[in-house]
Design brief:
Blueprint (H helix, E strand, L loop, with lengths): L41 H34 L8 H7 L1 H29 L14 H31 L15 H31 L4 H16 L4 H19 L2 H24 L2 H29 L13 H9 L2 H21 L2
Helix pairs in contact: 1-3, 1-10, 1-11, 2-3, 3-5, 4-7, 4-8, 4-9, 5-6, 5-7, 5-8, 6-7, 7-8, 8-9
Length: 358
C-alpha cells in the first residue's frame, strides 16, 4: 500500500493540489487553501499551508487549555471566602455538587467558546453526533475499548508502584463517598456521567474531529496529548493518554461521539463500582468480587477484539498529506501557545509531585 505520509509527486498530473475537502468526516473545511496565486512549486505551497493549518489547530488547543486554566483560577479563589473551603473538604454532597459545576464551567465553557470562535473562522465543525450505522461492530468496539481502558489502568498502577518502590510518591486523590444511595448516585454522576459527556465533546467531538483532515492517526495522538495534559496529575496523565488513544480510535471508527462517550462512562463507572465495593465489603471479599468483574470484562473484551479483527475494518483510513506524521506532530507541539501551555501543565504536575515528597 502506498505510504501517503511520504508522498512525492513525480509528474505534472500527480502535482495537482491534494483535495482533503470532500464529504468524508475529515472534510470539514472549505477549499480555500489550494487557490492559485503562488509562484513556487505547488507541493511546497501545500506543505506551507498544511503547516499553517496545523499551527491553527495547535493554537485552538492551546487556547482551550488556557481557558481551562483561567477558569480554574477564577473558581478556586471563590472557595476561600468564609467557610466555603472547610465545607468543601468536609461535606461530601457540597464537594460533589461543586465538582459537577466545576466540570461544566471549567472544561465545557472554555472549549465551547473556542469552538464558536473556530467555527466563525471556518476552522471547526461539529458533525460527530450522528448515530453509528453498524450496531454489532460498534458494540464490539465499545466493549473492546472498555477492556483496553481497563488494561491502561493496570499499566498505570504498575507505573505508580515503580515510582513508589523508588521512593517517589505520585499524588492521587481518591474520595470515598458515604455509603448512602444518594451519595453513591452522586458519585456516579460527578465521576462517570458528567466527565464522559463534557470531556468527549471537548476533546473528541471538537479537537480530534477538527484534526482529522490531517489523518486519523495524527488526530488521535495529538488529541490524546491534550487530554492527558488537562488532567495535570502524575498518575492520571499516562492513563489519560492511553485511554485517549482508545477513545479516539473508537470515535474515528464509528464517526460518532456516542460510542466514545459510552466507553468513557463505562471506564469511570467501573472505578466508582470498585470504590463502593471496597468501602462496603471486607477487603478480601471486595478483592474477590473485583477480580471476578475484571475477568468478565477481560473475556468479553477479548471476544469483542476477535469480532473487530474478523470484520477486517480495524485499520484507519489513509489520508494523503504532504507532511509526514513526525513533521505534523513537530509543527503542532512547537506552536508557541500550545508549547507554553504544555510546559505549564507539566510544571504544575511536577510541582504537585514535589510537594507530595517534601
Amino acid at each position: 500500500m502506498q505510504d501517503f505520509n511520504n508522498f512525492q509527486p513525480n509528474n505534472e498530473q500527480q502535482r495537482e493540489p491534494v483535495n482533503h475537502y470532500d464529504r468524508s468526516p475529515q472534510g470539514v473545511y472549505n477549499r480555500q487553501w489550494y487557490e492559485k496565486g503562488f509562484d513556487f512549486a505547488r507541493e511546497q505551497r501545500a506543505r506551507l499551508l498544511e503547516k499553517s493549518a496545523i499551527k491553527s489547530l495547535a493554537l485552538i488547543s492551546g487556547a482551550c487549555m488556557l481557558g481551562y486554566l483561567l477558569m480554574q483560577g477564577a473558581i478556586i479563589p471563590i472557595l476561600s471566602f468564609g467557610d466555603l473551603w472547610q465545607r468543601f473538604e468536609s461535606d461530601y454532597y457540597f464537594e460533589s455538587g461543586l465538582s459537577i459545576i466545576f466540570s461544566v464551567i471549567a472544561v465545557g465553557l472554555p472549549f465551547l467558546l473556542v469552538y464558536f470562535f473556530a467555527k466563525s473562522r471556518k476552522k471547526a465543525s461539529l458533525n460527530s453526533f450522528r448515530k453509528p450505522k453498524d450496531k454489532v461492530f460498534t458494540t464490539a468496539l465499545i466493549i473492546m475499548g472498555f477492556g483496553l481502558c481497563l488494561l491502561a489502568s493496570y499499566i498505570t498502577n504498575i507505573i505508580y508502584m515503580l515510582f513508589k518502590n523508588a521512593g517517589v510518591t505520585l499524588p492521587y486523590e481518591d474520595v470515598v463517598p458515604p455509603l448512602e444511595a444518594a451519595a453513591v448516585a452522586l458519585l456516579f454522576i460527578k465521576t462517570a456521567v458528567v466527565p464522559a459527556l463534557i470531556e468527549e465533546f471537548a476533546v473528541r467531538g471538537f479537537l480530534l474531529q477538527s484534526m482529522r483532515k490531517f489523518g486519523d492517526g495524527f488526530a488521535i495522538v495529538m488529541s490524546s496529548l491534550v487530554f492527558s495534559l488537562l488532567h495535570a496529575n502524575a498518575v492520571q496523565i499516562p492513563f489519560a493518554f492511553m485511554a485517549g488513544l482508545v477513545l479516539g480510535y473508537v470515535f474515528c471508527k464509528t464517526n460518532s461521539i456516542w460510542p466514545s462517550v459510552i466507553v468513557h462512562f463505562l471506564n469511570n463507572a467501573f472505578s466508582c463500582v470498585e470504590t463502593v465495593i471496597f468501602a462496603a465489603l471486607p477487603e478480601d471479599t471486595a478483592r474477590n468480587v473485583d477480580n471476578i468483574l475484571t475477568i468478565i470484562i477481560a473475556v468479553t473484551a477479548l471476544l469483542s477484539l476477535v469480532i473487530v479483527l474478523i470484520s477486517k475494518r480495524y485499520s484507519l483510513p489513509k489520508i494523503r498529506t504532504y507532511l509526514s506524521n513526525a513533521e505534523k506532530a513537530k509543527v503542532f507541539i512547537y506552536q508557541p501557545l500550545f508549547f507554553i501551555m504544555a510546559l505549564l501543565f507539566l510544571g504544575l504536575t511536577l510541582l504537585d509531585v514535589f510537594n507530595a515528597n517534601v
